[in-house]
Amino acid sequence: MKMDVFDRITDWFIRNEVIPLEDKELYTYGLKQGSLMVLNIGTIIIIGIILKMIWQSILLMFVYIPLRTYAGGYHARTGGCQGSCHK
Fold it and tell me: 64 vs 41, 57, 86, CA distance in Å?
């Protein structure tokens, strides 16, 4: 079975008794979500620097991140295209 970097980090936490074994999935999920958040923020800042709009990019993050957190969204019943998207 393939282990990704987040599983390895979580296993290291367990070996060093930082977290209990029962919480492994929770911490792995949290690490993945946290890294995606850092990646998104980094991307917005880089694009802001390239376009010379850094303050506007920071303002966008201050408005957009809480909006996305609390506004919710549409959730489809299926998990994707179910094979009909790619032919």
Answer: 11, 10, 32
Write the DSSP string, 11-78: HHHHHTTSS-GGGHHHHHHHHHHHHHHHHHHHHHHHHHHHTT-HHHHHHHHHHHHHHHHHH-----SS
Alpha-carbon gap, residue 57 to 62, rounded angstroms: 9
Instruction: With cut-offs at 50, 70 and 90, classify the pLDDT of residue 64.
Output: confident
10 Å Cβ neighbour count for 10? 24
Q: Which residue is listed with tokens 């959730």?
A: 75
pTM: 0.68
